[in-house]
Amino acid sequence: MKNSNYNLKKILPILFGFFIVGFVDLVGTATNNIKHDFNLSDSMASTLPMVVFLWFLIFSIPVGLLMNRIGRKKTVLLSMIVHLIAFLLPLFAYNFTIILITFALLGIGNTIIQVSLNPLLSNVVQNNKLTASLSAGQFVKAISSFLGPIIAAYAAKEFGDWTLIFPVYLIATLASSFWLLVTPITENQTIHSSSFKSSLSLLKNPTVLKLFIGIFTVVGIDVGINTIAPKLMEERIFGMTSLDSVYAISVYFIFRTIGSFLGSIMLSYVSVRKFYITSTFIAISSLLALIFADNLNILYLFIALVGLSVSNIFSIVFSYALQYLPDKSNDISALLIMGISGGALFPWLMGLASDSLELQAGALIVLILCCVYHIYLSFFVKKVEIETVDK
Fold this sequence. Notes:
Blueprint: H1 8-21, H2 26-37, H3 42-45, H4 47-70, H5 72-92, H6 96-121, H7 127-159, H8 165-181, H9 196-200, H10 206-236, H11 242-245, H12 247-266, H13 272-292, H14 296-310, H15 313-324, H16 329-338, H17 345-357, H18 361-390
Helix pairs in contact: 1-6, 1-7, 1-8, 4-5, 4-6, 4-16, 5-6, 5-8, 6-16, 7-12, 7-15, 10-12, 10-14, 10-15, 10-16, 10-17, 10-18, 12-14, 13-14, 13-18, 15-16, 17-18
């Protein structure tokens, strides 16, 4: 039975774990710095994100199986150990091989924590608070993602060494590990045994498959808008430089953070399904507007609205999936986190679309199609709610 103790002493250390989750977004800033530090070609520099996100595909289901054996809290703590090793390595040596190992370990550690942290949170909150709590976690992650580039830039400017961000991350990970370690959490007992095949076979369930595609596509929107926002600025605004265009990403992250914060509050009081429907319509309307926008302020406005509207979709879809099959939540979590690796596919699809039209509008169409799927899914989840109640 779910632990009914809904108190901050148990929730806060888990929410702080989402701050560690946000460390994976350092890869964007790190790629540019590492390319400069080691005189890498674009193709060689692009291997860094691949080194990180490949592990979401490889390790998600095995981590889910491990979590069934050792428990959720121990699995989260294992991820902390992997993160600590990753952040220690650059303190002893800084070369391309060490950096590849560091970011591979960051990808592995982040896969482990993302698979285990969401279901661990479900042990300390009630079902009707789960979506809001997951949005609160995404808010904490968004703060971490937003602060990472700022800390790296400050370290580079003041001390001439962007890698000083690693000891900062090391201290934060140590604090998170200790806080969680000393927090007693009663976990749901796993009442079934799993295998890789049985976990993957959950995708045969039409509802699980639809929710998996929901995660796959919302990650695609998130990665995609980060990729296309600067390009849109350079294409539409005369004289816009690559240095200035990156502010569009900051605008997206700021409003994504605001959206996660608002969602963590509003989703405790409003219908999750209505919130989801409204969010998807705002997202698709904003993306459609971006196809025609050619004014700097208008571009910023609709990029901000995309960030605001999609900020809670990941949490909403994830919470529906965890509540749909609560006795298999470990396996469900592993499957959905595996969908994060699919985010690497969308920049490639967007590139093909923009090349075919010779305009960034082609890339926006790919993102719009992702949003269209979420319009469908936002109406479909009414059926999921009914099925969950029936269970």
